[in-house]
Design goal:
The protein has 392 residues and is α/β, with parallel strands linked by helices. It folds into two domains: 93 residues, Urease, subunit C, domain 1 (Roll); 284 residues, TIM Barrel. Helix content is 30%, strand content 22%. It contains eleven helices and 20 strands. Strands 3-2-7-18-19-20 form a six-stranded mixed sheet, with no helix packed on it. Helix 4 runs parallel beside helix 5, helix 5 crosses helix 6 and helix 9 packs across helix 10. It is globular. The two termini are 33 Å apart.
């Protein structure tokens, strides 16, 4: 049995910290969490000194097949499956070294994330969607998920379930990465989205919708999706929260996955439209937070140089800047994210019976959220990860 000792512990939910914790791990599972005291006989102790323990972080929106370059679409198109898997493996490992022990991949090509998931090894747990379901020539059509009509959507959901998908991803609006689509315009009707929801739920799968524009957000909410990605309230020229829709979100069970945060990249110039939108988007998420909408904190990792696959700590920082406090930010990348991903019974907490996915950081993230960038140790399923390194 392994005992992990540190100075403090946040269990993923409680505001009450554990001082001088001893986390007892048997194999890949936590069997007990104790305060200060002697370890049982025969326990091998890993004493991390003044480190602060948090649950393994969960990034519920990543794209392992995108390489965080300035042209992720072109770079992926130039790779065959073997080369793409190699790049995805490196991306996943970089996330793990940063303390991200579970990722939800919301769009790949040819079900490659599922192939990577089966490899195991020094990787985070991968919850995979496969190619996102999109309209003909719709957002990310090049990943292979184009469909038409209600029956086409139902068949696409069934195919992903048969291939072993953990979640269904549908593109309710256009997006920035795909020429010829527009983030503010819907791609599916409410009836089409509802067909996807009914089929996914009948197969026991959660479903999430990429939605930027107001109509697409409303369609996704009315269809009953479990989570909405981005939820940025984009219009043709800017972004503007709809108060009635914000209230409807707050009164629903739908969780908003706020794809936040950017790692500083010297010399990087954001696209003019995005740069102009940033201030507006901050205001919108402040309104959404104040309204009590259920939020998790994610990164959309892979889509550009400022969004590498180890960027979640920066997402948590921005979460606090849009109105969430540190404890809410920590929950949003641990226990709340686990619940939204339907793995809340085994992940997102440091507690008996949970997977031994544990991260040690330098500093107290409840008072300094940037401590999440100073990773000193990572345990995945009870095993130490070599050479941990969070983004600085």
């Amino acid at each position: 049995m392994l005992g992990i000792r540190a100075a403090w512990l946040f269990d993923g939910h409680s505001e009450t910290l554990v001082e001088r914790p001893l986390v007892l791990v048997d194999g890949s599972t936590i069997v007990d969490v104790r305060g200060a005291g002697e370890a049982p006989d025969g326990v091998r102790i890993a004493d991390l000194g003044e480190a602060f323990l948090v649950p393994g972080m969960i990034d519920a929106h990543v794209h392992l097949c995108f390489d965080s370059s300035t042209d992720v679409v072109g770079a992926l198109a130039a790779r065959d499956d073997a080369a793409a898997l190699k790049q995805m493996r490196a991306a996943a490992h970089s996330a793990l070294r940063a303390g991200i022990t579970t990722v939800r991949d919301l769009g790949d090509r040819g079900y490659l994330a599922m192939r990577l998931r089966e490899e195991g090894g020094a990787l985070p747990d991968i919850l995979a969607a496969g190619p996102p379901i999109t309209s003909v020539k719709g957002h990310c059509w090049f990943l292979g998920g184009e469909v038409q009509g209600v029956e086409g959507i139902r068949a696409a959901v069934r195919e992903r379930a048969e291939r072993g998908a953990d979640v269904i991803k549908v593109m309710a609006t256009g997006g920035e990465l795909t020429q010829g689509t527009h983030p503010h315009l819907p791609q599916f009707t409410v009836d089409e989205l509802r067909a996807a929801v009914v089929e996914a739920h009948a197969l026991g799968l959660p479903i999430t919708a990429h939605a930027h524009g107001i109509t697409g957000i409303r369609n996704a909410l009315d269809a009953g999706v479990d989570t909405i990605e981005h939820c940025s309230f984009m219009t043709a020229d800017t972004a503007e929260a709809d108060p009635e829709l914000v209230a409807a979100l707050a009164n629903s069970d739908t969780v908003v996955s706020a794809t936040l945060g950017h790692i500083p990249v010297p010399g990087l110039v954001l696209p003019p439209r995005i740069a102009a939108l940033l201030e507006k988007l901050t205001e919108i998420f402040q309104q959404v937070t104040a309204a009590g909408v259920k939020l998790i904190c994610t990164s959309d990792a892979g889509i550009g140089p400022a969004k590498p696959h180890n960027a979640l700590a920066y997402s948590a920082l921005q979460f606090t800047e849009i109105g969430g406090d540190n404890i809410a930010a920590l929950r949003a990348i641990t226990s709340a994210a686990a619940s939204a991903c339907r793995v809340g019974g085994s992940k997102g907490r440091i507690a008996a019976g949970f997977d031994a996915d544990i991260v040690a950081v330098q500093g107290n993230p409840l008072t300094d959220i940037t401590a999440l960038r100073r990773v000193v140790a990572v345990y995945k399923a009870g095993r130490p990860v070599a050479d941990p390194a969070g983004p600085q």
